[in-house]
Fold this protein.
Amino acid sequence: MASPLPADLIRPQIAALPTYNAGLALDRFSDIYGIDCIAKLDSNENPLGAAPGAIAAIKSSADGIARYPDATNAALRQMIARRCGTKADRVIIGNGSEDLIGALFRATLRDGDHVVTICPSFGLHEFGAMACGASVTKVNFPDDWSFPVDGLARAMQRDTRILIFASPSNPTGPAITETDFRAVIDVTPQDTLIAFDEAYIEYVQKSAQFDALAILAECKQPWIVLRTCSKAYGLAGIRVGYGIASDERLINALMKTRNPFGVNALAVAAAIEALSDEAHLAQVVELATAERVRIAEALRAMGHESAPSQTNFVFFNTGGDASGFAESLRKKGILIKGWQEEPFRNWARVTMGSVAENDAFLAAVAELAAEA
Ligand SMILES: *Cc1c(COP(=O)(O)O)cnc(C)c1O
């Protein structure tokens, strides 16, 4: 028999957290459902995969894996600094940007600190902060899916430690306008750190793009912008994200709270190649952009409204309990994510896969409707 676990061993903030609502890995899918997955559309992964050069770089770096990687990640930081017009000491690399979100919370949050975010949101923005003892205020998206500037203004207090949100938003899809972004900065207290998560920045249509780094450079608050190689660059499995901050002292603090060798040598080699391949990126963005329009229209024709998307996914109203809807689709070999956050439990997020995968998703939704 297992030895008893002392009742107070786990910190109460951790015991109270829900388990991370992760997508289902393909081999686990087959084990559970006894069928092959036809379309894995639950984790916003890239149907075209990584740039060929990234995979070649991983293979050719394999010979060196007996050595520890460069703990300072100097080569990749310099490359990103050049691309973003900043200095390498204001850039940090993480084992995925989730690693950096955790490092940020560990470096800054004290018990009882206040964090503000938007709902529905990327789970870690809320639960990562709660794990560090913070209380989190969530501000709902309004019905028109604009970013809730007034709601954020009301939620923030003078001592709010962090405002964290993603644009384009995961799971909903819209991108904040430049005007609203400036307005959010204006209503943020001077000592509140703005953590702006741009995991889907590459998918934003030209007419909606703006340079958040340039705008933040003029603001009075501390800030960090987070980006990732997991989505448009197709490196979700090898884990690379990065952050650009207002101050190298913030970067130095995060270097202490992240795992020192968390970014492995193969990941760095792959990221450098992936970030260099603009032609591959353009293909990825073109496919996702065309498919998000097509799928939203097809869903609307079947009676499912969706939020406007500037990403590689569509957030839509299933018309009932989204978890049950997603489970019914799984039995047909289609994986999507039913949202589990009030008041969005009727909504689900479907990733834009290949045309064939998206067609399989639409066919399964139509089948479900016919069976009802
Ligand atoms: C996917 C995602 C991330 C990051 O993922 P990593 O794989 O850890 O880099 C961060 N923020 C949002 C909003 C995301 O959707």
About this structure: The radius of gyration is 21 Å. DSSP finds 14 helices and twelve strands in the chain. The first strand starts at residue 39 and ends at 40.
